[in-house]
Amino acid sequence: MTDKAKGRKLFFIAVLFLVLLNFPVISVFNTGGVVAGVSVLYAYMMLAWLACIVCVGLVVERQGEKEKSTKE
């Protein structure tokens, strides 16, 4: 994967999670309900943030593994 392809994927992930953490989507989860003792809104925001971190980590790690395998 080239740096341009990796950059495009990371840009797409950033835009996707910007949309997921923006007002119209967040207002859907602002119901006042509770999941496991945590507000639904807070649970959604933490899970979306965690998903963002995992997605970025996967894109970056895959690139690192491919570079290591080609250098050896």
Key features?
72 residues, mainly alpha, two-stranded antiparallel ribbon, 2 strands, 6% strand
The secondary-structure class comes to mainly alpha
Low-confidence stretches: none
Cα end-to-end separation? 17 Å
Global morphology: elongated
Question: How many strands appear in the DSSP assignment?
Answer: 2
Tally of contiguous helical segments: 3
List the helices and strands in order: HHEEH
Strand content: 5-15%
Mean pLDDT: 89
Strand order of the main beta sheet, please? 1-2
For the biggest sheet, the summary is:
2 strands, antiparallel
Query: If you compute it from the alpha carbons, what radius of gyration comes out, rounded to the nearest whole angstrom?
Result: 16 Å
In helices, the fraction of residues equals over 70%
Task: Please describe what this structure looks like.
It is a single chain. With 72 residues, the chain is mainly α. It is 79% helix and 6% strand. Strand 1 and strand 2 form a beta hairpin. The protein is elongated, with a radius of gyration of 16 Å. The two termini are 17 Å apart.
Could you give a quick summary of the protein structure above?
It is built from 3 helices and 2 strands; from the N terminus they run ααββα.
What is the strand and helix layout of this fold?
Elements: H1 3-20, H2 23-29, E1 34-35, E2 38-39, H3 40-71
Antiparallel strand pairs: 1-2
